[in-house]
Specification:
CATH class: Mainly Alpha
CATH architecture: Up-down Bundle
CATH topology: de novo design (two linked rop proteins)
Number of strands: 0
Number of domains: 1
Oligomer: single chain
Low-confidence stretches: none
Helix content: over 70%
Largest sheet: none
Strand content: under 5%
């Protein structure tokens, strides 16, 4: 459960960083604020990848891994939005992808078999 909830949290933190990075880019890609936002985004992207690898190692159901990879792909592309409306839509898409992942992961966690003694 900790791995799945950790992945969801990390992706949502990355989402916030991507919002900030993209909004700073709309203002000016040559600003210090943009450079700092981009650096933060890269740091959180690395954390999100780490969390995704943990999901891949733990998930029994390939659908859970696919849903996690979908969420990661959507959040990673947020900075390519051309305007605020597109950015907001991508952010909403990330949240929906995380919700789908959590629903599938929750089903696996609640039906998990106990470890042998």
């Amino acid at each position: 459960m900790a791995v799945y909830s950790g992945f969801a949290g990390t992706v949502l933190e990355f989402r916030t960083a991507q919002y900030n990075r993209t909004l700073r880019a709309f203002e000016s890609k040559s600003s210090t604020a943009y450079d700092e936002a981009k650096t933060t985004s890269y740091t959180l992207r690395a954390s999100a990848w780490h969390s995704l690898y943990r999901v891949r190692l733990l998930a029994d159901d390939p659908e859970i891994t696919r849903l996690a990879e979908d969420a990661m792909a959507i959040v990673a592309d947020m900075h390519d939005a051309n305007d605020k409306a597109a950015l907001t839509q991508r952010g909403d898409d990330v949240r929906c992808a995380v919700e789908a992942f959590i629903s599938a992961a929750s089903a696996e966690v609640t039906t998990a078999r106990p470890l042998p003694k």
